[in-house]
């Protein structure tokens, strides 16, 4: 079974292709880290896969009706918008909307808050929280949607180390329980430690796709990112740390 | 003698003596236009105001077309080389003052506010034109016509209702027309003196026998919508007599007789209906 | 629910007060009885033909303005979006004036609300184009100023060119609005559009809630933004257009009411919609009663009152947004 299936996905902006012929299949159990330098096309790839922008090629998600898609995939956009001073519970409950009513009393809401370490935030006003707390609330909304697939655009941005690790752990656990997550990630160390698979984009094209240790090679890092990194296997798992710019 | 006449005669007295009647007369007021057209010798009147050809304001549009029209501005009027300008007392004071400074003789008359005032005003204009005899003849005809329309009937009630809920009350020519034709004026009873607004609610509560409205202008306006309001229409349908005001009601000229006759017919119609 | 119940009772109270207050100074029992009397004298005429349509139009127009303000704010995620401020009302007035002055409305009564609807829809479309969800507050307000100015100037031009001497004096009516001397005819013209527009806007609740998270998130939650945009334009244009066609442009109701009620509805757009509709009705009924109490003989314009109350709110909102952005 495949939860995400992209075939030759291409997005053009003017004459140039921002996403260029990307093919990708994601199965249950996978936590895919989407990596690449700024402007590589990560956000565009996610939005095109969801069918939000005009594209060529095929995406199984874009082919679904909006209602069916909302039950198949949950999406965390890059912009952390919270337009109105709603309560945290009401906000997270929006994740229940595709399943009927956005009921803040639904057990999935409390479960999602708890997973993100937000017990006791139930009645807080979302817009009055710190940026990191807001991101955790928005990830909780993603979880409350309880879809087989999650697409997240830089879920770790703006989070403190604890929250970053917690978010990655939550995604990894979801994958382990038979769901799948595709997240664009800038922190290669986090990606190396938590993802089951990495997809590296270079100017819209797929540069590499495979287990972290096969993707984060010195040659690819030098070519795509222009960096050199320290890499070690430890008792705590793989440690990966970019150390120098080489161009 | 009415205030208007005193005012006008005082102006005449203040002027230096002229030799003979004026030869080039320009009228810049709708009401003096019509009196001048009725009284002037052929060739004596050289221009009337542009309103004189407006069918919604003037009773003499056909006659007025024979005269060049003016818009009442001092420059335009002065260039016609008049030796007398006839104006209303509310005519642009700036234009009148400028014409006087330029040495033009201007006679101003106040709006007529009663039927008796019509005769006075005819005489004032006739005097200014040097046509006293023609004036007396016109007054005789007018007064005879008026007398022919007099009846002794118990008063009914009527309201004069115009766009924006405007009505005319005490001290107006229209009020006197109503009084002469045995109508009590609801506007006057409601406390309006001169012109003023009467909320439609109060008009309807007064339940007049006849509602006299103005004829609509071309084009649409919300101000006039009040005259076709269903509540008003229902009230008028109940009375069974429809009367409208028109150009004849505006000026104190012998044409007011037509307005008197129309209201006479409305009053007689009410009497017959009862 | 408690909020809606208390707002509803406030509306009922103000509706009754609107029926009871007028220059004719009728007794309470007398006027109430006359409202339901089949055939009647002057009192029944006043109650059924003058005060009842006025109260109904106050209720409907207020609800339409409050509701469309709340819906536009929810869709644009901007508390400054308001039909009056962004030129939707003045464009509706332009449509209405054109229908009246060309004689279209005289030939075909529905042309009046339809033309106003078209004007309002045009302005909505332009606003969404210029200051769509990503446009931000500045683009919204600037586009609104431009559209208002243009529509206002065009309205003045049409009225000035009218052969009717009264028309030119009515610019202030179209810009400020009034419910004086409206009739049941106006109610029948406006009510179907306002009700249809309201029904359309109420369907947006779920989508507006989801839009709290931004466009992409809302779309990922299954909301069809393109459909929502069309519903919003139709609903606002129908409600505001019909209100303006019969009562002129009345500003600030759609700004003040959602602003006041937002904290009481947990800021959720879906819960704000019915509250703003009731609140708008209450505000407009109250303002209309006030015009009758303050200057009974002068036809004080409704928009004057709503602006006197609303403009300081507007400044307050701008001040607050300035602080947040700083």
Label this structure with key terms:
heterotrimer, B: 274 residues, alpha/beta, Rossmann fold, 2 domains, five-stranded parallel beta sheet, four-stranded parallel beta sheet, 13 helices, C: 326 residues, mainly alpha, ABC transporter involved in vitamin B12 uptake, BtuC, 15 helices, 76% helix, globular, ABC_transporter-like_CS (chain A)
Tell me what you see in this structure.
The complex is a heterotrimer of chains A (247), B (274) and C (326). With 247 residues, chain A is α/β, with parallel strands linked by helices. Chain A has helices spanning 42-49, 66-72, 88-93, 107-115, 131-144, 161-176, 188-194, 212-215, 218-225; strands at residues 4-13, 16-26, 31-35, 56-59, 73-76, 149-153, 180-184, 197-202, 205-210, 227-234, 237-245. Chain A has a single domain (4-82, 146-245), classed as Rossmann fold, CATH 3.40.50. In chain A, the strands form three sheets. Chain A has a six-stranded mixed sheet, sandwiched between helices. Chain A has a three-stranded antiparallel sheet with strand order 2-1-4. In chain A, strands 10-11 form a two-stranded antiparallel sheet. The longest helix of chain A has 16 residues, at 161-176. The termini of chain A are far apart. The model of chain A has no long low-confidence stretch (mean pLDDT 94). Chain B folds into two domains: 3-145, Nitrogenase molybdenum iron protein domain (Rossmann fold); 156-273, Rossmann fold, CATH 3.40.50. In chain B, strand 4, helix 5 and strand 5 (106-109) form a beta-alpha-beta unit. The longest helix of chain B has 18 residues, at 256-273. Chain B is globular, with a radius of gyration of 20 Å. Chain C has one domain: ABC transporter involved in vitamin B12 uptake, BtuC (Orthogonal Bundle), CATH 1.10.3470. Chain C contains 15 helices and no strands. Chain C is mainly alpha-helical. Chain C is globular and about 60 Å long. The longest helix of chain C has 35 residues, at 42-76. Chains in contact: A-C, B-C. Chains B and C meet through helix 10, helix 11 and helix 12 of B and helix 3 of C. Chain C: This is Hemin transport system permease protein HmuU. Chain C: GO terms for molecular function: transmembrane transporter activity. Chain C: It is a multi-pass membrane protein.
